[in-house]
Design brief:
By secondary structure, this protein is of the alpha/beta class. It folds into two domains: 2-148 and 310-343, Quinone Oxidoreductase, Chain A, domain 1, CATH 3.90.180.10; 156-288, 3-Layer(aba) Sandwich (Rossmann fold). The protein has helices spanning 39-45, 94-97, 130-133, 143-146, 149-162, 178-188, 202-211, 223-230, 248-254, 276-279, 296-304, 323-331; strands spanning 2-8, 11-16, 28-36, 61-69, 81-84, 124-127, 134-136, 170-174, 194-198, 216-218, 236-241, 256-264, 285-288, 314-319, 339-343. The strands form three sheets. Strands 3, 4, 5, 6, 7, 14 and 15 form a seven-stranded mixed sheet that branches. A six-stranded parallel sheet has the order 10-9-8-11-12-13, with helices on both faces. The chain has a two-stranded antiparallel sheet with strand order 1-2. Strand 11, helix 9 (248-254) and strand 12 (256-264) form a beta-alpha-beta unit. Helix 5 packs across helix 6. It is globular, with a radius of gyration of 20 Å. The model has no long low-confidence stretch (mean pLDDT 96).
Protein backbone atom coordinates (compact mmCIF):
# COMPACT_ATOMS: atom_id res chain seq x y z
CA UNK A 1 0.00 0.00 0.00
CA UNK A 2 1.08 3.63 -0.48
CA UNK A 3 2.16 5.46 2.68
CA UNK A 4 3.48 8.99 3.09
CA UNK A 5 6.55 8.49 5.26
CA UNK A 6 8.90 10.53 7.42
CA UNK A 7 12.34 9.73 5.97
CA UNK A 8 14.52 12.29 7.76
CA UNK A 9 14.40 15.89 8.86
CA UNK A 10 13.06 17.94 5.95
CA UNK A 11 12.02 14.91 3.90
CA UNK A 12 8.73 13.03 3.53
CA UNK A 13 8.26 10.50 0.75
CA UNK A 14 5.43 8.36 -0.66
CA UNK A 15 6.58 4.75 -0.40
CA UNK A 16 5.18 1.23 -0.59
CA UNK A 17 4.59 -0.51 2.74
CA UNK A 18 2.87 -3.75 3.73
CA UNK A 19 -0.68 -3.54 5.01
CA UNK A 20 -0.69 -3.40 8.84
CA UNK A 21 -1.79 -6.36 10.93
CA UNK A 22 -3.36 -6.67 14.36
CA UNK A 23 -0.65 -6.70 17.01
CA UNK A 24 -2.79 -6.71 20.16
CA UNK A 25 -6.33 -7.87 21.05
CA UNK A 26 -7.36 -4.21 21.56
CA UNK A 27 -6.23 -3.14 18.06
CA UNK A 28 -8.35 -2.40 15.01
CA UNK A 29 -7.40 -2.10 11.36
CA UNK A 30 -9.09 0.83 9.60
CA UNK A 31 -9.30 1.34 5.85
CA UNK A 32 -8.67 5.07 5.52
CA UNK A 33 -11.15 6.82 3.24
CA UNK A 34 -10.20 10.45 3.88
CA UNK A 35 -7.20 12.03 5.55
CA UNK A 36 -5.91 15.55 5.94
CA UNK A 37 -2.71 17.48 6.54
CA UNK A 38 -2.13 19.17 9.89
CA UNK A 39 0.37 21.83 10.87
CA UNK A 40 1.74 19.27 13.34
CA UNK A 41 2.79 17.17 10.34
CA UNK A 42 4.86 20.15 9.19
CA UNK A 43 6.41 20.40 12.65
CA UNK A 44 7.59 16.80 12.23
CA UNK A 45 9.00 17.59 8.80
CA UNK A 46 10.89 20.59 10.17
CA UNK A 47 12.37 18.62 13.07
CA UNK A 48 10.34 20.34 15.79
CA UNK A 49 8.96 17.06 17.20
CA UNK A 50 11.96 15.16 18.61
CA UNK A 51 9.85 12.16 19.59
CA UNK A 52 8.78 11.59 15.96
CA UNK A 53 10.32 8.38 14.62
CA UNK A 54 11.91 8.30 11.13
CA UNK A 55 10.26 5.64 9.01
CA UNK A 56 6.76 6.12 10.37
CA UNK A 57 3.79 6.90 8.16
CA UNK A 58 2.68 10.44 8.99
CA UNK A 59 -0.84 11.76 9.41
CA UNK A 60 -3.27 11.79 12.34
CA UNK A 61 -6.42 13.35 10.84
CA UNK A 62 -8.50 10.63 9.24
CA UNK A 63 -11.80 8.81 8.93
CA UNK A 64 -12.38 5.38 7.51
CA UNK A 65 -14.08 2.01 7.72
CA UNK A 66 -13.22 -0.68 10.27
CA UNK A 67 -11.80 -3.73 8.46
CA UNK A 68 -10.73 -5.94 11.34
CA UNK A 69 -10.83 -5.84 15.15
CA UNK A 70 -8.96 -7.65 17.90
CA UNK A 71 -10.64 -10.10 20.23
CA UNK A 72 -11.04 -7.56 23.04
CA UNK A 73 -12.56 -4.75 20.95
CA UNK A 74 -16.28 -4.24 21.72
CA UNK A 75 -17.03 -0.62 20.79
CA UNK A 76 -16.74 -0.99 17.01
CA UNK A 77 -17.01 -3.80 14.49
CA UNK A 78 -16.02 -4.40 10.86
CA UNK A 79 -18.00 -2.23 8.47
CA UNK A 80 -18.43 0.70 10.87
CA UNK A 81 -17.52 4.16 9.55
CA UNK A 82 -15.36 5.78 12.21
CA UNK A 83 -13.37 8.83 13.19
CA UNK A 84 -9.85 8.21 14.48
CA UNK A 85 -8.71 10.07 17.59
CA UNK A 86 -5.43 11.98 17.45
CA UNK A 87 -4.64 10.61 20.93
CA UNK A 88 -3.95 6.99 21.73
CA UNK A 89 -5.06 6.19 25.27
CA UNK A 90 -5.66 3.07 27.32
CA UNK A 91 -8.65 4.40 29.28
CA UNK A 92 -7.42 2.74 32.47
CA UNK A 93 -4.37 4.55 33.88
CA UNK A 94 -4.57 7.40 36.42
CA UNK A 95 -4.51 10.14 33.79
CA UNK A 96 -7.06 8.48 31.50
CA UNK A 97 -9.45 7.93 34.39
CA UNK A 98 -9.27 11.65 35.16
CA UNK A 99 -9.80 12.71 31.53
CA UNK A 100 -6.17 13.67 30.86
CA UNK A 101 -5.77 11.23 28.00
CA UNK A 102 -2.89 13.16 26.43
CA UNK A 103 -0.83 11.97 29.41
CA UNK A 104 -1.75 8.27 29.13
CA UNK A 105 1.10 6.28 30.66
CA UNK A 106 0.95 3.42 28.16
CA UNK A 107 4.03 3.31 25.87
CA UNK A 108 1.70 4.10 22.95
CA UNK A 109 -0.19 6.74 24.90
CA UNK A 110 -0.62 10.36 23.86
CA UNK A 111 0.16 11.49 20.34
CA UNK A 112 1.39 8.26 18.79
CA UNK A 113 -0.36 7.91 15.43
CA UNK A 114 1.69 9.57 12.72
CA UNK A 115 4.41 10.46 15.22
CA UNK A 116 5.72 7.37 16.99
CA UNK A 117 3.70 4.67 15.20
CA UNK A 118 2.36 4.55 11.65
CA UNK A 119 -0.38 7.09 10.99
CA UNK A 120 -3.11 7.71 8.46
CA UNK A 121 -1.78 9.29 5.26
CA UNK A 122 -2.03 5.87 3.71
CA UNK A 123 -4.58 3.21 2.76
CA UNK A 124 -4.80 1.24 6.03
CA UNK A 125 -3.87 2.08 9.62
CA UNK A 126 -3.60 0.07 12.83
CA UNK A 127 -5.29 1.85 15.74
CA UNK A 128 -4.27 0.70 19.24
CA UNK A 129 -6.91 0.83 22.00
CA UNK A 130 -9.61 0.96 19.36
CA UNK A 131 -12.43 1.16 21.91
CA UNK A 132 -11.06 4.53 23.03
CA UNK A 133 -9.61 5.78 19.74
CA UNK A 134 -12.49 5.10 17.34
CA UNK A 135 -15.98 6.61 17.31
CA UNK A 136 -18.78 5.57 14.97
CA UNK A 137 -19.91 8.24 12.53
CA UNK A 138 -23.71 8.72 12.55
CA UNK A 139 -25.41 7.63 9.32
CA UNK A 140 -26.55 11.18 8.57
CA UNK A 141 -23.00 12.59 8.85
CA UNK A 142 -20.70 12.42 5.83
CA UNK A 143 -17.02 11.52 5.97
CA UNK A 144 -16.10 15.13 5.15
CA UNK A 145 -18.32 16.46 7.95
CA UNK A 146 -16.63 14.10 10.42
CA UNK A 147 -13.05 14.37 9.13
CA UNK A 148 -11.71 16.90 11.64
CA UNK A 149 -13.44 15.41 14.70
CA UNK A 150 -10.46 13.51 16.06
CA UNK A 151 -7.87 16.28 15.89
CA UNK A 152 -8.47 19.98 15.25
CA UNK A 153 -12.12 19.89 16.33
CA UNK A 154 -11.18 17.90 19.43
CA UNK A 155 -8.49 20.51 20.07
CA UNK A 156 -10.92 23.41 19.71
CA UNK A 157 -13.47 21.68 21.92
CA UNK A 158 -10.85 20.93 24.60
CA UNK A 159 -9.57 24.50 24.50
CA UNK A 160 -13.07 25.94 24.90
CA UNK A 161 -13.83 23.49 27.70
CA UNK A 162 -10.77 24.32 29.82
CA UNK A 163 -10.96 28.09 29.28
CA UNK A 164 -13.81 28.63 31.75
CA UNK A 165 -15.79 30.83 29.35
CA UNK A 166 -18.77 32.68 30.81
CA UNK A 167 -21.62 34.43 29.01
CA UNK A 168 -20.42 37.91 30.05
CA UNK A 169 -16.88 37.29 28.76
CA UNK A 170 -14.97 38.71 25.84
CA UNK A 171 -12.92 35.96 24.19
CA UNK A 172 -9.90 36.76 22.02
CA UNK A 173 -8.71 34.05 19.62
CA UNK A 174 -5.26 34.66 18.15
CA UNK A 175 -4.97 32.85 14.83
CA UNK A 176 -7.66 31.98 12.28
CA UNK A 177 -6.00 28.95 10.77
CA UNK A 178 -7.87 25.62 10.76
CA UNK A 179 -7.41 24.99 14.48
CA UNK A 180 -8.27 28.60 15.27
CA UNK A 181 -11.52 28.31 13.31
CA UNK A 182 -12.37 25.06 15.12
CA UNK A 183 -11.68 26.81 18.43
CA UNK A 184 -13.95 29.64 17.27
CA UNK A 185 -16.77 27.20 16.46
CA UNK A 186 -16.51 25.65 19.91
CA UNK A 187 -16.28 29.03 21.67
CA UNK A 188 -19.46 30.08 19.85
CA UNK A 189 -21.26 27.18 21.54
CA UNK A 190 -20.50 28.87 24.90
CA UNK A 191 -22.28 32.07 23.76
CA UNK A 192 -19.89 34.63 25.28
CA UNK A 193 -20.75 38.32 25.09
CA UNK A 194 -18.12 39.07 22.46
CA UNK A 195 -15.60 37.15 20.32
CA UNK A 196 -12.59 38.81 18.72
CA UNK A 197 -10.35 37.04 16.22
CA UNK A 198 -6.82 38.31 15.53
CA UNK A 199 -5.41 37.26 12.15
CA UNK A 200 -2.89 38.79 9.74
CA UNK A 201 -3.79 36.85 6.58
CA UNK A 202 -6.21 38.85 4.43
CA UNK A 203 -7.67 35.64 2.99
CA UNK A 204 -8.39 34.23 6.44
CA UNK A 205 -9.82 37.55 7.61
CA UNK A 206 -12.22 37.45 4.65
CA UNK A 207 -13.13 33.86 5.51
CA UNK A 208 -14.03 34.75 9.10
CA UNK A 209 -16.05 37.79 8.05
CA UNK A 210 -17.91 35.82 5.39
CA UNK A 211 -18.82 32.82 7.53
CA UNK A 212 -19.05 34.34 11.05
CA UNK A 213 -20.29 37.93 10.61
CA UNK A 214 -20.96 38.47 14.32
CA UNK A 215 -17.28 37.95 15.17
CA UNK A 216 -15.02 41.01 15.43
CA UNK A 217 -11.74 40.78 13.49
CA UNK A 218 -8.48 42.65 13.89
CA UNK A 219 -4.84 42.32 12.83
CA UNK A 220 -1.87 41.70 15.12
CA UNK A 221 -0.42 45.19 14.78
CA UNK A 222 -3.53 46.87 16.14
CA UNK A 223 -4.78 43.94 18.24
CA UNK A 224 -4.09 45.33 21.71
CA UNK A 225 -5.60 48.72 20.92
CA UNK A 226 -8.62 47.04 19.31
CA UNK A 227 -9.15 44.74 22.30
CA UNK A 228 -8.92 47.61 24.77
CA UNK A 229 -11.47 49.56 22.75
CA UNK A 230 -13.95 46.67 22.72
CA UNK A 231 -13.51 45.25 26.24
CA UNK A 232 -15.05 46.36 29.47
CA UNK A 233 -12.14 46.10 31.90
CA UNK A 234 -8.75 46.40 30.29
CA UNK A 235 -8.51 43.35 28.08
CA UNK A 236 -10.06 40.05 27.12
CA UNK A 237 -11.42 37.75 29.82
CA UNK A 238 -10.22 34.69 27.93
CA UNK A 239 -7.42 34.55 25.37
CA UNK A 240 -6.75 31.52 23.17
CA UNK A 241 -3.34 31.51 21.50
CA UNK A 242 -3.73 29.31 18.42
CA UNK A 243 -1.18 30.93 16.09
CA UNK A 244 2.18 29.82 17.46
CA UNK A 245 4.14 32.61 15.76
CA UNK A 246 7.22 34.29 17.16
CA UNK A 247 5.39 37.12 18.91
CA UNK A 248 1.90 35.73 19.53
CA UNK A 249 2.60 34.34 23.00
CA UNK A 250 3.45 37.81 24.29
CA UNK A 251 0.47 39.25 22.42
CA UNK A 252 -1.80 36.75 24.16
CA UNK A 253 -0.97 37.68 27.74
CA UNK A 254 -0.57 41.36 26.87
CA UNK A 255 -4.16 41.51 25.58
CA UNK A 256 -5.59 39.71 28.61
CA UNK A 257 -7.34 41.62 31.35
CA UNK A 258 -6.33 41.10 34.99
CA UNK A 259 -7.39 37.67 36.29
CA UNK A 260 -7.98 36.35 32.77
CA UNK A 261 -7.43 32.83 31.51
CA UNK A 262 -4.81 32.46 28.76
CA UNK A 263 -5.09 29.10 26.98
CA UNK A 264 -2.09 28.20 24.82
CA UNK A 265 -3.29 25.87 22.08
CA UNK A 266 -0.41 26.47 19.67
CA UNK A 267 2.62 24.23 19.25
CA UNK A 268 5.76 26.38 18.99
CA UNK A 269 8.91 25.72 17.00
CA UNK A 270 11.00 27.57 19.62
CA UNK A 271 10.92 28.11 23.41
CA UNK A 272 8.81 30.99 24.68
CA UNK A 273 9.72 33.45 27.44
CA UNK A 274 7.44 34.01 30.41
CA UNK A 275 8.44 37.54 31.55
CA UNK A 276 6.97 37.42 35.03
CA UNK A 277 8.17 40.92 36.08
CA UNK A 278 6.37 42.44 33.08
CA UNK A 279 3.10 40.72 33.88
CA UNK A 280 3.27 41.10 37.66
CA UNK A 281 -0.11 42.00 39.09
CA UNK A 282 -2.18 40.71 36.18
CA UNK A 283 -2.89 37.50 38.13
CA UNK A 284 -3.23 35.47 34.95
CA UNK A 285 -4.03 31.78 34.75
CA UNK A 286 -2.17 29.98 31.97
CA UNK A 287 -3.46 26.70 30.58
CA UNK A 288 -1.25 24.77 28.18
CA UNK A 289 -0.61 21.30 26.84
CA UNK A 290 -1.68 18.79 24.27
CA UNK A 291 -5.32 18.16 23.49
CA UNK A 292 -7.22 15.74 25.72
CA UNK A 293 -9.20 14.28 22.86
CA UNK A 294 -11.85 12.40 24.81
CA UNK A 295 -14.92 14.34 23.63
CA UNK A 296 -15.25 12.95 20.11
CA UNK A 297 -18.60 11.25 20.67
CA UNK A 298 -20.08 14.56 21.88
CA UNK A 299 -18.51 16.42 18.95
CA UNK A 300 -20.08 13.96 16.49
CA UNK A 301 -23.45 14.48 18.18
CA UNK A 302 -23.08 18.26 17.75
CA UNK A 303 -22.18 17.77 14.09
CA UNK A 304 -25.22 15.52 13.62
CA UNK A 305 -27.42 18.21 15.22
CA UNK A 306 -26.05 20.86 12.87
CA UNK A 307 -24.37 22.85 15.66
CA UNK A 308 -20.84 22.43 14.27
CA UNK A 309 -19.94 22.53 10.58
CA UNK A 310 -16.31 22.42 9.49
CA UNK A 311 -16.90 21.65 5.81
CA UNK A 312 -16.28 25.30 4.78
CA UNK A 313 -12.67 24.75 5.88
CA UNK A 314 -12.14 22.25 3.05
CA UNK A 315 -10.66 24.17 0.14
CA UNK A 316 -8.65 21.52 -1.73
CA UNK A 317 -8.92 17.81 -2.52
CA UNK A 318 -6.18 15.47 -3.74
CA UNK A 319 -5.79 11.73 -4.20
CA UNK A 320 -3.11 10.05 -2.08
CA UNK A 321 -0.94 9.69 -5.18
CA UNK A 322 -0.66 13.52 -5.34
CA UNK A 323 -0.03 14.14 -1.65
CA UNK A 324 3.31 15.84 -2.39
CA UNK A 325 1.44 18.57 -4.24
CA UNK A 326 -1.10 18.80 -1.42
CA UNK A 327 1.72 19.38 1.07
CA UNK A 328 3.35 22.00 -1.14
CA UNK A 329 0.13 23.99 -1.31
CA UNK A 330 -0.68 23.59 2.38
CA UNK A 331 2.81 24.35 3.68
CA UNK A 332 3.21 27.45 1.54
CA UNK A 333 -0.39 28.64 2.04
CA UNK A 334 -1.00 28.83 -1.69
CA UNK A 335 -4.27 29.27 -3.57
CA UNK A 336 -6.29 30.31 -0.50
CA UNK A 337 -5.80 26.93 1.17
CA UNK A 338 -7.28 26.28 4.58
CA UNK A 339 -7.62 22.50 4.78
CA UNK A 340 -6.81 19.76 2.31
CA UNK A 341 -8.70 16.50 1.95
CA UNK A 342 -6.55 13.54 0.91
CA UNK A 343 -8.60 10.78 -0.69
CA UNK A 344 -6.95 7.59 0.51
CA UNK A 345 -9.57 5.00 -0.42
Amino acid sequence: MLAYTYIERGKFELVEKPRPRLEHPRDAIVRVTLGSICTSDLHIKHGSVPRAVPGITVGHEMVGVVEEVGAEVTHVRPGDRVTVNVETFCGECFFCRHGYVNNCTDPNGGWALGCRIDGGQTEYVRVPFADQGLDRIPDSVSDEQALFTGDILATGFWAARISEIKEEDTVLIIGAGPTGICALLCVMLKRPKRIIVCEKSEERVRFVREHYPDVLVTGPEECKEFVLAHCDHGGADVVMEVAGAGDTFRLAWDCACPNAVVTVVALYDNPQILPLPDMYGKNLTFKTGGVDGCDCAEILRLIEEGKIDTTPLITHRFPLSRIEEAYRIFENRLDGVIKVVVECG
